[in-house]
Amino acid sequence: MPVPASRPYRDLKRAIRPGDWLTMLAAVAVILVLFESLWLGETASKVQIRAGNQIHSTLSINQQRVVEVPGPLGITTVVIDHGKARVASDPGARQYCVKQGWLDQAGQVAMCLPNQVSVELLGSRKIHDSLNY
Amino acid sequence: MVFALSACGREPVYQSQSYVFGTLVDITIYGEEKNRAAELASRIQQDFQRLHQKLHAWDESSELSRINRAIAAGESVNIDSEMANILEHAGKLSAVSNDLFNPAIGGLIQQWGFQRDSFSAVEIDPDAIKALVAANPRMEDIRIERHDDGITLSSRNPAVRLDLGGYAKGYALDRAAAYLKSEQAKNALINIGGNIIALGKHGERPWHVGIQHPRKSGAIASLDLEDGWAIGTSGDYQRYFELDGTRYCHVLDPRSGYPARHLQAVTVLLPPDALAGTHSDADSKPLFITEPENRKAMAQQLGLTHYMMIDRTGNISVSAPMQKRLKWKTDAGTRIQTLP
What we know:
- The complex is a heterodimer.
- Chain A is of the alpha+beta class.
- Chain A folds into two domains: 7-40; 44-123, mini-chromosome maintenance (MCM) complex, domain 2 (Sandwich), CATH 2.60.320.10.
- Chain A has three helices and eight strands.
- Chain B has a nine-stranded mixed sheet with strand order 1-2-6-7-10-13-14-15-17. In chain B, strands 3-5-4 form a three-stranded antiparallel sheet.
- In chain B, helix 7 (168-182) packs antiparallel against helix 8.
- The longest helix of chain B is centred in the first third of the chain and has 22 residues, at 34-55.
- Classes of the chains: A alpha+beta, B alpha+beta.
- Chain A binds chain B through residues 50, 52-55, 73, 92-94, 96, 100-101, 103, 105, 107-111, 113-114, 116, 118, 127-133, and chain B through 17-19, 22-24, 26, 28, 117-120, 189, 191, 193-196, 202, 207-212, 217-219, 222, 231-233, 235, 237-238, 240-241, 267.
């Protein structure tokens, strides 16, 4: 014989409307997204470009943009493309920073030392305070 | 929540970046009022500039170049006490490493084209390299004499060419740390071209640093760098050139005259000491150069307890005390071996 649900439970069930379920679902989704982006925190949100002793610019990574950064040897070209960034060209002889290719995780850095330009991806929080290399 | 956010916004962190010693310099100071932090960082940057000019190995106007010219000419030369202390200490480090750390091989480094701000592949000249190795320049050849009216340096071997590339950045770190302590600044993180020293903490937590993956963008592991500790890496991935598919890195084996080829990277972690920064710079070189079977003995000789090595195929060996400190990134995977 089925046990009838207790009165408070039936009242609760009646009180929650379809819209409420949607709201709760949305809340869970928001928590999951926040967990992913804040707690795991490896997704990059910004690109910080440095030239010599200055921060040249700090830009959103979620855009398409070409940035020309002047240095002592000439122009270093940085490309930002919806969630990733790379050094597309650099006047330095060795081209390490160009060969590095796309960066898409927070904390990743490309350094064009001869031209004194560096590109670092920043997340919602810093993964580490500094990088040993 | 609002309070927490606004408190975050006012986190008392001051950061200063510059470009010295041919590389990036980062100074982070925590917990000081902004103007004072800026003043402290600026003093440190000035000292770095001074050392860069003084110890530059191929700028003709540097103090070190003046000494190198005198050595080549077989003459004795007056030096100041700071230079004498640096060269005497570098000489000790060289001796304890069986001359694998050898700041007297500037001639070889130049021959390989690494004494340039922006170098490219060079024609390898085996005869020239052979001659430079045969001349056997060592720190032991240098004689430093303190007189009442000054200090003189001479070398019994005219082939000695001083290059403090594996020493100067670490020395600068130690000076910066000592200066901050003398100013009662307790919390800072200083990074010169990847060599890092920590003072105090970042607020409630220790400073946390990543170790660059030798073949990928981003870190291979990270660790808390506690008060007074320093970390340094020698790798084949920051300064190198490729010729006919072979990678030639900037760390030269003084015995052969050719770039060391056993490893992709060596990371050393040094406990608090007045010379922790200097050791974090210099001590990775002998491990990077020496043969695999001699590494353990070399680490013991250098007094190293915390070190990690990544070989040419990407296998990682790490000393047990170092392993305890590291947090691996997921893709470091199963290639990690803890050394007995």
